[in-house]
Design goal:
Pfam families: MST (PF04978). The protein has helices spanning 36-55, 60-64, 75-93, 108-111, 117-139, 155-181; strands at residues 147-148, 153-154. The protein is mainly alpha-helical and 186 residues long. A two-stranded antiparallel sheet has the order 1-2. It starts with 35 loop residues before the first helix and ends in a 5-residue tail after the last helix.
């Protein structure tokens, strides 16, 4: 007997996929969008879906399960971290008073990721709220070359940075999920 879960996938059409194409909410609108802004938004949306998919079907204890010591990383911590990051990106583009952090000081987003249903529910709510707020703030600036905030960050740079952040953490989520229950797939 071993504590290592067996690898598995829910996909039957393409065994290297997370789920079958007809069950996959990503890229379900047909051909890719035209234009740079729409393409960037499409990639961001798909990475957001991927992160949620990697968390689906797990209980609070599983979502809060840490990777390997001394890391504090967990799927729940990633949800909280990305909510925190979305909020901080709004600080980059505004010139007003900075929004406070959601979870306290250094590593609070991961340290506070405990396996309790209210913490999980709050993490999903925080992430949805912060994503919508950042999306709303950026919707007011459709010119990708426009520079915002005190540092003059280009809208394009911010969108690409957001995609990079989600993509990197989706890679972490792949490994975290596989360690929890063995489920694999892109």
């Amino acid at each position: 007997m071993t504590d290592t879960p067996a690898r598995w996938t829910a996909a039957s059409v393409y065994p290297d996929m997370w789920t079958d194409p007809d069950q996959d909410p990503r890229n379900s609108d047909g051909v890719s969008p035209d234009g740079e802004l729409a393409t960037l938004q499409d990639y961001l949306r798909d990475y957001r879906w991927t992160l949620r998919m990697k968390c689906e079907g797990l209980n609070p204890e599983q979502l809060a399960r840490r990777s390997v010591p001394p890391s504090t990383m967990s799927l729940l911590g990633l949800l909280r971290h990305l909510a925190e990051v979305e909020r901080d990106w709004r600080n980059w583009i505004s010139v007003g008073e900075r929004l406070p952090g959601l979870y306290g000081g250094d590593d609070g987003d991961f340290d506070g990721a405990v396996g309790e249903q209210p913490v999980v529910d709050a993490a999903y709510a925080d992430l949805a709220r912060e994503q919508a707020a950042t999306d709303g703030a950026l919707a007011e600036h459709p010119d990708l070359g426009e520079r915002l905030g005190a540092d003059g960050i280009a809208v394009r740079e911010l969108l690409v940075h957001r995609i990079e952040e989600y993509a990197r953490h989706c890679g972490h989520a792949d490994l975290l999920r596989e360690c929890i229950d063995g489920r694999v797939g892109q």
